[in-house]
Amino acid sequence: MTAIRTSGLTKRFGRHTAVDQLDLEVPRGAVFGFLGPNGSGKTTTIRMLLGLVSPSAGRVEVLGEEIPAKVMAVLPRVGALVEGPAFYPFLSGASNLRRLDTADLRASATTRDARVSAALDRVGLGHAAHKRVHAYSLGMKQRLGLAAALLAPRELLVLDEPTNGLDPQGTREVRSLIRSLADDGTTVFVSSHLLAEVEQICTHAAVLRAGKLVAQGPLDELRDAARPRIEVRTPDAAEAASVLERLGLAPERSAPGTVVAAAPLSSSSDDGVPAPEDVVAALVAAGVRVRGFSAATASLEERFVELTGEGFDVAE
Ligand SMILES: Nc1ncnc2c1ncn2[C@@H]1O[C@H](COP(=O)(O)OP(=O)(O)OP(=O)(O)O)[C@@H](O)[C@H]1O
Hints:
By secondary structure, the protein is an alpha/beta fold. The chain is built from 11 helices and 15 strands. The longest helix has 16 residues.
């Protein structure tokens, strides 16, 4: 079962293509991290998923329904937090939620207070229900935004950079809330420019670069796809590079005394792909004086930097 599926999804602003032929597939029950540097097209994609802007080309399906054709039927099943929710600062958190709940024509007035209290408790704001919103911290405002998204039961939550601008405490609160919502079975689609965040809370991820999808899948698979790296320290760097090249391990960078190659390596030498010991043997046989050799799998961080190029924040 798929919560979100897009095919060939494209958005052009004039001559600029902000989102380019996106084929996304978000399984139900996933916490799906939508990762990319600033300006890579995350918000534009989310706005298309929610029917807030229309695509230039391609299709969107959310919870099995076409968007924008079925948007009115689908949106009540989807909670969204996009670009900082707007609240009345001089009303309390509870009053703000009551106003929002009143605007929902399906919501019964008799159960309104119970719904508002439950949503505030769910995000840990029960104690601040009657405090004015202007006295809320950024983290509390963000949690109030989530409470607003949770006034009705939701099958899918779409959150655009929900921890942006939060201090470490607020960030932790929002992340643990996302995890607990996912534990209750809600599918969560969350955009972020932080790999560390995605690694902490997501089961799946897609990586966007300049409007194009460069990777997507379960986080474990993305980790496995990270290519092992070989590093050879030698005074004979040029010879070492040519040996690695002969073995099909294109050397990537060569500092004085160091040659680095990223390559698929095998744990045995049976399948024609060299194992680390074969590489060392070939280097030695070619007369390369090896001072140091290591073969290590690239971290997810290195892999994502490789995929997205410069300008990618990996830390918090
Ligand atoms: N309404 C618009 N008119 C023209 N260009 C736009 C519009 N909205 C977005 N863009 C451009 O589309 C590109 C993608 O923007 P988008 O906001 O989707 O990226 P993002 O990944 O969400 O980045 P950020 O994290 O900075 O919000 C950017 O180059 C942006 O300038």
